[in-house]
Every structure is written in C-alpha cells, then in structure tokens.
Fold these 4 entries.
Entry 1:
Amino acid sequence: MKLSSVFGIGFATLLTASLVSGCGGGSQKNAVAKVGDTAIDKEMYLRRLELMPTPVQIAGNQATTAPAGYTTLVQMIREQVLLDMAKEEGVLPTDQQVEERVQREMKNNPQIKQAITEQRLTLDDYRERVRVALAEFNLRTKGVTVTEQEVRKVYDENKQAFYRPASARVRTILVQNPEVRKQIDDDLKRGFNFQSIVNKYAQNPVAGVQSGDSEFALEGQVPPTPDGQILQRVRTILKNAKPQQVTDWIPVGDGAVARFEVLAKSQGQQLSFEEVKDNIREQLMLQKGLQTNRDLNMEMAKRMVNTPVEIYSEGWKKQYEKDIEELKKTLAQIESQQGGKPAAQGQAQQQPQQGSKPAEKR
C-alpha cells in the first residue's frame, strides 16, 4: 500500500472532495469496525457509502474498480486515527470552531447548503467532515504563525487573483445515446421537471449519461482549441439564459450533447481583503508547515500500522491485514533508505487474530 493511497493533503483538498461524513462514535452493536477504543457507527458508514463514487485503480495500462464499501471503511479508519492523533497533540478542533467553519463554508459555497437542503448530505455529517479537515490542518500547521502584514502583502500583490468571475450555477445532463436523448425530450414534453429527469437518468450510467451540479464561470480566457470553442459556445448560451431556464441541447464534442438548467447567476466582483484574508492566512500557514521537518504522512502511516483495528467483515478484515502488511514493508523500505529503524513495531503486530469474533453477537 502506497502512502498516497492512505492520506489526503491539506485542508482545501479535504473540503473540496466528494461530500462525505466523518467517523467515530456509536455502540459496537451497531458498528462495522473498531479503531482503538472507538467504534465506527454503521448508520454513518452507510450514509458515507451512498456518497462514495466507484473507486478506480490504475495499474499499468489497465483500469480496475475497487469495492466502494472497503474503500469507504479504510478512509473512515484513517480519519479516526487522525482525530485521535490531533486529540493527543492538543489540536483537536472544538465544537465551536467546527460550527464556525461550517457556517463559513456554507456561506461561501452554495452547493454545500443546497446538498444539505435537498438532504443529499446531513448537517451532522458535514460537521464531521469539517472536524476531520480542521484536525488535519491543525496538525500540518502546528506551531506555525502568520502575521497580518504577511497576509496583506499577498493580497496587495495579487489582487487580480481575488477577482471572482461572473458565474452560473447549473444542473447538467450530458448524453451520448440518441435514444436516451429522445426519452429525455419526451419526459420534458410531459411536464417532468429537470431535476427529476437528472435523478432518473443518472441512475443508469451504462446508458452513457453524466449529470451533476456545478459552478460554471462565464468570464476568463479560453484556449484557442476545439474544446475552447465549445466552452465559449456554452458560456454564450448561459450568459443569455435566465435563472430556472433549461437550455436546448448543446453539442459538447465526441458526439455528446448537454442540457443545462440555470439555478442561479452571480455577477463578477473583486473580493475585498476582509473576504479573503482567512483563506490567504490558511494557505500561508500550509506553505510554512510544508517547510518544517515534520512529515505528517509518514507519522500517519506509522500510526495506521500501530493502531489496533477490528473489522467485523471477515473478507474486509483479511484485506485490511494484507494492506497493513504492505504498508509496513513500505515504511521499512523508506526508513532503511533513511537509516532509521523499522516503523512496524509493538502494536503494529497486534492485529486481530484470524477468525476472531467480537465478544457481542451482531
């Protein structure tokens, strides 16, 4: 197992990835695994699994899919290990800090608020996502300070980077199959709303349908390429479209066509220093944190192999034990090259014995 397969990098990466829940809590009776003394709640795991896209692994020139259930569980184990590490080092975010960050993200990102409003994501699950992201940020920036003058200097010297272009928030459906396109046209004629159509056809990826919500920039340079021409064509159509309007089919290359529903539009604006200073400070802190000698990925890898984990699915337990053994070998190779001692010691070898069962019947 490569270190990169276990760890994410930085605060922004965690918050802009797929919408996910956190882990931890719950009784063992309703758990799928146990990390140290903390159970991974079954209901939270199932909500998380619903949002997990099918993981794709690339080996040579061949792409294979990985079980989403196992991938989800490993990620939740990793997050619980990270939270435990942050607690030990005294940098675990408080409930108040988490809530303040949640409100900030919901204010700055309408898609998050929409996902919660439409019940595609619960507010509690998003709080846990933010808690994990803040914990990792705090670990990466422990002991780092950034002055107000440093933040102001970055803003003054890069004001053009803090211009927010005009944009349209759109719901999109992209189709390649002419028969599916006709079915969608017929549904629209029968009075189905666009969201129900997106939900209906998104459940059939075999039909070559792609869909989703996104923020589409209506300003900025486009490359002088065929893709750039398509982008400019879509921009022009969206600029002239009104909120709640559904566009006609637009050719988007390779025989595919797309339709857009304009959910909302915003004008371009120069963001003030007050609006962006927190983001600038965080980026500067992460940059300074990367310059320190601390290798959080390596520390987390060592904690992963040294944290007792009990998984209640026999198949996944065996796979996890196999992956941890590979991770131990990777750590040993790295530390051998660095002249250090092997990382996999002590509790690293205290994995659940093959065929062991939880004490309580499930």
Entry 2:
Amino acid sequence: MTFTAITSAGEKVGVIVVDMQGDFTTWKNGSLAANGTDQVFVEKVEKATRMLKEKGYPIFATQDWHPVEHVSFYPNHVGKEPFEAIQLKGRTQVLWPPHCVQETENAKILLNQNLFVTIVQKGKDKRYDSYSGFQDDGGNKTDMDRILKKNGIKALIVYGIATDYCVKATAIDAADAGYKVTVVEGLSKGVAPDTTAKAIEEMKAKGISVVKELD
C-alpha cells in the first residue's frame, strides 16, 4: 500500500502534515474550522503520524502563521464579508475570517511537536496568501524544498487540513518540484464537499496518488 509501495522503489519518503492547527478544527472552535475536525479526527492524525515516525519516516509540518493585518482577512477590506472573493493585482483572493494569527493559542499545532523534524511556517508576508507549504501566492519560496532535499527526501506522504486548499496546494507544488506524492484522504478534511471532490481530481490529474487510508 501507500508507504510500503513507495519505499519499495528505493526512494526515501518523508511526511508533510499540513496545518493541524486549532483555528482549522471544530475541536478548538476554530474561526475557520473544516467539517469533521473534532478531537477524534485530530487524535487519529496524531496516531497515524506517530506510527509513521516509529517506522522511521521523517515528519515535517506546515503552520499558517499570519500577521494581524494579513491580506486574506476580511476585516482588513472595508465593506467586505467573509468568504467573498475579490481581485487583487490580477489574482483572486478569497477573504477569510482572521485565523492562525501569530502567537495566538489557536495558531498552535495540535500534534506533539516532538514528532516533527521541523515546522515550516507560511503566510507570514501580509501581502500574500499562502496555501502551499512550498510558496506563497506571490511566488516567494518557503524553506520546505531545501529542507526536504537536505534530508534526501524523494517521495512524500501528505495529509492534514484542508484538503481543498492547503493540502491540495502543498501536494501539487510538491509534485511540480519532482517529488512522488501520495495524499491520504482519510487523514485530511476539506472545507466543502464540492471543492474537496474537485481538489482530489486536480491532484490525480497531476499524477498524485490519493488513497483512503494508510494500511
């Protein structure tokens, strides 16, 4: 299955756990919680991540880490409502409720920090949204690719929140960067069913393997 099939190809496999933060979960009454992200789901993700670490897979994480004046926050746009889409300098920007503000309680990653080799923060530039763990909407790169290469990673298992935004963007950018990517649907939750279904098709079209669970 998933990780055994990848490792049989002789490639070093890493894991990226995407944005497992309080503001994206119903468990912590997050301001931008995806459906189904209760305590049971978070514990399931932690258990799976711990299992992968015990098997020797290096685990990496992404963390949304926004300044209060971030461009994606609807209160920073006069007269706008949450979830509106506006045009900014030729790109579409969805306006979100303020979330994962730097140094706030619900910006913390909910899994045990000792599971991770490193945590890559994203969305720190107030001018650009940053769904992907590899780069923001302005094309500014994070340290993710450099860190993965430093660790000899050739293939990736990706999961977390949200399937239709940050998981998708991270997985697609990883595939575009030359990594062999597997997304675990059962360890991910999306914002909405229609955009989640579309995201899964987009990922598959990029050659990304999407599996239900880790066997």
Entry 3:
Amino acid sequence: MDPLFLAIETAREAGALLLAHAGGPLETEQKSARGDLVTVADRASEALIVERLLAGFPASAILGEEGGVRAGASDERWIVDPLDGTTNYAHGYPMYCVSIAYERAGEVLAGAIYAPVLGELFAAEKGSGATRNGRPMRVSRSARLYDSLVCTGFVPAGYERNGENFARLSRVARAVRRDGSAALDCAFVACGAFDAFWEFDLKAWDVAAGGLIVREAGGTVTAIDGSAYTVDGGSFLATNGVIHEPMRAALAGE
C-alpha cells in the first residue's frame, strides 16, 4: 500500500470523526501544562488512526501524541497527531487538524495534514512536491520580512520563552499570528498564506508532516538558530526560504 495514500485517507476519516464529536459536550483534561488539553475526541481519533495504519503496515512503529510509543518490527514509523489544536477544538475555533507522517529509516517520506472544518488537505511525498486539495502548491515569494505575515505558537505556561520574540517580530514583520496548531501553521507556510512560522519545544508529531510539506513546497526548514532540523529537535523555523536568514537573525536579536 502507498504510504501517502493511506495517510491521506486516514487523515480524512479521522477528521470526519472529529467533526462528529464537535459541538457536543466534551470532557477535557489538562496534561503537562496549563493550556495543554486532551479530550475524548483526541483519543478516539488516535485509536481510529492507529487501527488503519497497522492494517496497512502491521510491522511499523507508531509515535502518537496520546498513545505514546508502539514498537515495530521494521524500520518504518508513523508519527501521528490525532488532533493538533485541541484547545481550539474544545472552544469551537476551527483552526485544528489531523497530522500523519510516514518515516522510513529515520527519514520522513510522506505526510498529510487535514483541517476538517476548513476542508483543506495538504500532502507531500519526498521528491514529488506538495499539494493542497490535490493541486500543486508553493511557498510565497515575499522577499522582505517587513512585508511578511509570520506565525508562532506557545502554550500559556511557555509564554516567557517566546514572548520577547513575539514582540520583536511584531515590530519588524507586517503582522504576527498565533493560531494554536503547529501542523496547520506549517501547512499555511507551504501554501503561501504565511511567510514564516517558528516555535520552541515542539514534538515530532507537531512537525513531522508539516516539515516535509514545507520543504516539498519549496520552503526552508531549520532549527530556530539556523542549525539542522530534526523531527525530534523541538526548535523549529519554517519559511519561504527567501526570508529565512532575516527571520533567523530577528529571532536571534541581531
């Protein structure tokens, strides 16, 4: 079975499940920090995703936000966020998504991000470009940070780590957004809606699919200090490539 096809179909099915749960009473639990929530919808979505992925790739490992690590018997791994933007979801704000990435021998080869309320499906396969609802997409052509719309994220408990950067970029970019879904922020960089996105302390499930999609759309992805990006590195900077160095310098306070 083709990993990208499975990722896309599974993301769509999980998105439909999230829509079915939305609008009703939701029990929420706080996880590690204030603003880091989980709901029954997160867990139901992940259970569905794991079932579908293992049916297609029974020997693969799975790293899921709500289920932790499942060891596999091959060099393949699925990296899953069943509901990225849980706080948004719990409050009826439509900026949330399902993110699924396929990794083999430590390299992400396919990824899909589906925002069910928006009806937007972003996908990429290494070496084949990126698509938005099946059509090829590219990053923006913005050449100046001054003209750029950029985005970031942080949980309330982590504001101090990023607050100075938020203020600094607010002074030098056209505007800064904080939408609360790292995977969807990556997708919006890939399609040119955002010119850049940065965030600290991310997990692999936040950026595995999004990082690939940005690169396949022609963008650049590194750690915030400009060093090499890894899915488990936490520090993340994605741009259209043209403003990557100005973003790195601004975030470094240069």
Entry 4:
Amino acid sequence: MAEKIFEKKQLAKKSEDFSEWYTDVILKSGLADYAPVKGCMVFKPYGYAIWELMQKVLDEKIKANGVKNAYFPMFIPEGLLSKEKEHIKGFSPELAVVTIGGGKELEERLVVRPTSETIMYSMFSSWINSWRDLPYKVNQWCNVVRWEKRPRLFIRSIEFLWQEGHTVHASKEEAQAQVDWAMEMYKNMYRDYLAIDGIAGRKSESEKFAGADATVTLETLMPCKAPLLIISAKILPSLLI
C-alpha cells in the first residue's frame, strides 16, 4: 500500500523553524526514520535509493582513477588503534568498544570502526615491499560508528554510511595530487549532481583530522533558527596527506 501523500501545509514553516522543517521533510517524505537505538536512523527505500545513485556515480569516478575497492573488518583491536596516540586521542570520546564476545570477556577489547586508517595501514605495511608497489590505492564503502552526542538525521548519527579512500605514494607531491583529485570529485558531486555549492579549503591546525599532517574539506552551510548558528557539513573526513 502506498504511503499517504502529505501536503505542504502539514510541514513546519521553513522560515520560522528550519530545524523542525528539515526533520519534517525527511520523515514525511519517507526518506528515513528514527531507529529503536537512540542516535541511529533507518534508511527507508526512497532514502537508500538516493544513496545508491550517489554511490554509483562516485564509484565509477573512483575506479576510473585506478582505485580498487576492498573491505576491512569493522572491529579494530584496541592495541592497534592505540599505536597512533594522536589518532586515538581525537576519537576517544566517540568510540564504541566491545568487551564481551561469545559470552566471554575478550582478552583484548575491540573498537567498532570509527575510521579505518589503523587497520588499513597495518595491512599495507605487509603488502607494500618497495617503491615498485606504489602507488597503492584502495577505497572502502562501509559504515562507521561514532558516539555522537547530538545526532541529526543524515547530517550525523551514531552509525553512518560513507566511503573512505586510502592511498600510499612514493612522494608527498603524488599524495597531494591524489587529494586534489579527490577534492575535485567531491566538489563535482555536490555541485553538479546535488546542486549544493560550498567553500573548499584547508582546515586549521585545531580542526584538522586526528593524526593527519593536513586536512582539506568542502564546507556547506545550512540555515537554522538562530541566525548566528550554522551547521557545517564536511565531506572529506578520511583523506590524509
């Protein structure tokens, strides 16, 4: 049975309360719904279809650049994550940790993937033996978990979908060229497919990705009830130089 079509008059007024209007549109159009787990969301078929179309476009561009898809475990040994002290420090407030498996307390706690750098690069170290193996470029479509204190549908929930590309190069210049290419790909996706423009640039030292030398990002702004308060959407959280 088709879902009941809602009328514009049933929505909160965008000009009066953008936040309520934003949530109204998502719920009443059938894009998503709140999950039984607080802070998580369910992609309903209509909403997930949009994600699939976006994934299809990006996946073709990623593969055309010579990047191959792979998949890594969502459980990361805590000791492996702890090797990167700056990395773990940046994520520690948002980590979800597994302490029991199969009814027994685990000898080593497992962190549910907040991002995949540590587990990916531990594998890269055994796969890459010389400069002849470079560049090494992989991409992963997956879910990640970050214990967000103020979740919001599609903008940030405790568990969310994304892709993360990780590449290894012989020089910083080659790595930078890869980052520049990725930024153009994202800008093209936002501008030409989603009709959303933004400001691209380098984040400050205090805002850069945990463990990175530098972080570049494309920021878009959303209005809200308070004129001076903005929500910024970051689309490039996973590329390191």
